[in-house]
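User: Please predict structures.

Assistant: First:
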Amino acid sequence: MSSHDEYSSDEEELFDENENSEVYLGFVDGPIIDDEEDPEDNELPTIEDTFIGGKPVWLHPESRPDESVLTCPNCNQKLALLLQAFAPIDGKLYDRVIYIFACKNTSQCSRKSNTVKVIRGISQDPSRVSEIKKEQDEAIKNELNEKLRLEDKKKFNIEITKDLFNTDKDKQSSNPFGNSSNPFASSSTSNPFSADSNPFAKKEEPKKEVASKESYAKIASKNAPAKKEKKKSLVSDNDLPSYKGNFVYVDIEKFKKETLDPELEKYKHLIEKGEADSNDPEDNIGSSGKSRRESSSGASIEASSVLDDKFFAAFTERVKHNPNQVLRYNIGGRPLLYSGKDDIAKRFVGNTFNVPNPGYNPSSNRQFELQLMPKAIMDLEEIEDNKDTNIASILNGMSWGTIIVCTDVEDYVPKDSLDENHVAYIEEWCGVQWEDSV
C-alpha cells in the first residue's frame, strides 16, 4: 500500500488534523522494474529517489564505496541494500544519500556486530552545486514575492475599510453617501463590499500546511516515481546480492483519532507513561521471549505484551496510526525505540544521546536521522501480510525490529575522502534493535 492509499481522501476524517508531527514517513509506492526484454517499461531509480531493496545507485558511475564497507566482516559475503534514501539538507549545496546495507546470510550473521552498515554519500560536483544554488535562489525569490503580495493585499484591504468603521465625530458628520465617498459606488476598487475586500464576505479557507516546514528537503523532492519523468539510472552493482526493490513515497506523519483497541483501553496509561518516562534508563520491565513483529506491523497485541515492555508498547501504539510505514525520518529528533531492554535503548534514554562521535570529525557529535521499520522486512522478503503466513519462514529471515541511523551533526566531509568525481562515501553509526528470541 502506498502513502496515497494510507492517506486517501476517503479516509481523511479518520486522521486528527489538530495533531502535528515533525516526523516524515516512507511507504512502499510501486515496484522497481528492470526488464531486460522490455526496457521501455522499466522503472529504475536515480539518486533522487528513495527506495528499499534492489541495487544501490551510486552518486557517480565511477565512484563507489570501498569494498570492505560492502562486505560482511563475519562471513565475507557481499552485503545487500536494505534502503537508499535521498536525504538532502536544506541550505546545503550538494546531493546527499543515506544507504543501509545488511548481510543476507541471516542464519550465520544475524545479531552479529557490523553485519548491518550505514553509508552517507555526498556529491559536491561543481555543476550540480551550481544547479542546486540556482534552484534555492529561485525558491527564495518566489517565497519573498509571495510574502510581499500578501502584505500588499493586506495593506490595501486596511486602507479601503478603515474609514468604514471610523468613530471620529468630524468624519461622522460628513455624508457617507456623497459622490466622493459612497462605499456603494460602481468602482470595484473602492467598494468595501466587493468580493475582494468585503470584511464580512465569506472567504475561502486557506489550505492548512502539512507541517511547519515542508522539508525533509521538500519531502525528498516530492519523490513519487509513478508521476515523475523517467530518468536514466546512473549505475547499479550486479555483484551485490539484493532483495525485492520498491520505490518509497515520503509524507508527513498523521495520527488517527482513535488508535487503541477496546481491550487495551485500560492499559492506555501504561503506554502514555512509557513515552513520558523514556528518560529513565533503569525503569525497564522484563522480557516475554516471543516474537513481536506481527504486533509492530499493525496487528493487535496482547495485554501481556503491553505490560512486558513499555517502550515496545509505545512503539506499537505509534505505528498503529500508520501501520504500513517502512521508514521514519526526523533529523535531529528522537528515534522510536522498538525495545527498552537492550544496549541500544540505553543510548537514547535521557536528554543526551550516548552515540559515538564520528572518528573522522571527533570534535563533533552525531544526531538521530532516520530508522528503518519492521514492515520493510515483509516488503523486502515478499512476505504476505495474512494469517496463513508461516511464522517459521519469517523468523528464518531478517529478525530486527528497527535499524536506527545517526549521522554527523555537521555533515562533515573530510577533504581526502572526496575522489576525482567529487564524491565521498562515509560510514556512519547505526544501532540494530533485534527481535526477542523465541
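Second:
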Amino acid sequence: MLEIALGSALMYYFTTQAFEIEKKPEGTVYYTETLDSRNPSFTRNHREAVVIKPAVEDQFRGIVRQAYDYSCGSAALTTLLNGYGGLKLTEQQTMTGLLQYGEYQRIIERRSFSLLDMKRFVSALGLNSGGYRGEFSDLTALKQPAIVPITYAGFKHFVVYKAYKDGRVYVADPSLGNISFDESRFKEIWDNNTLFIIDIPEQYRKNFLALQDADMRHVDDATINRYALAEIQFPTQRFEKIADKASTMRRVLDADPNSENYNKPITTFMRMYYKRK
C-alpha cells in the first residue's frame, strides 16, 4: 500500500512539475489537424494556438457604442473627439458635459442632444466647431471626419462620416458599427444636408477613424438580389438521385395519364421526411 501511495505521489509531482503550463491569452483556442500517415513524422497530431477575435470588435472598431437609445449624439461626439481629436473620453463624461453646457431643460424634454449642445461642450474643451449646410460634394471633399444627422428607419440619428470611396459613404454608427451606404441612399437619409465639424489642431489629430480594408467588405444590393433572393444555383438532379438511393423502392401503377407508362407498373421511391416537433 505504501508503495502505491508513494508511486501516486511521484506521478503527481512529475505531472505538475515536469511540464511548464503557461497561462494562455484570453480568446485562445486550439485546433487539431491529423497529419498524412504516409509522411514520416514523430507525431500524428499537430496542435497550434489560434487567437480568435470576436467579429463585434472589428464591427465597432474605433467607435464608442451608444449606451442608451437616445444617446447617439453623445456617442457620436465621443467617437469623433477620441478618434480624430486624440481624447480619451467615455460616453458618460461626454453626456455630463453636454448636460452641463447644453440646454439642459430642452435636452430633458426632447431626450436627445442637439448640434448646439455639442458646440457648447466642444467650446468648453477649448476647441472650435460649427454646424454647416452643404452639398454632397462639400461632404466628400472633407479631409476630416464629421458628425452628420440622418433619418434612418423612421428615427433621427447621429453618425460620424468617415470617407467616400467608389460611390459609397462610410460612416461610424454608434448603434450599428462601421457601415456604409451607396451614394443615392445616403442622399435620401442625410437630414437637411447638415454636418458638424470640429477644428482639431494639427499636432493633436489622430487617424483612428481612417478607412480600412475591413470597412469595404460590404455586400451590395445587386449581389443580394442575385444570390440570396434567387432560387438555388446548383442542379437538383444530382440531389434527387442521392435521395432516391437512400429511399425505399416500391412497384405501383403509373397514374399519370400523360405518361407513356400510364396504368403500367413502374418503380417509385418512398422517401421518409422527418419533422421536428
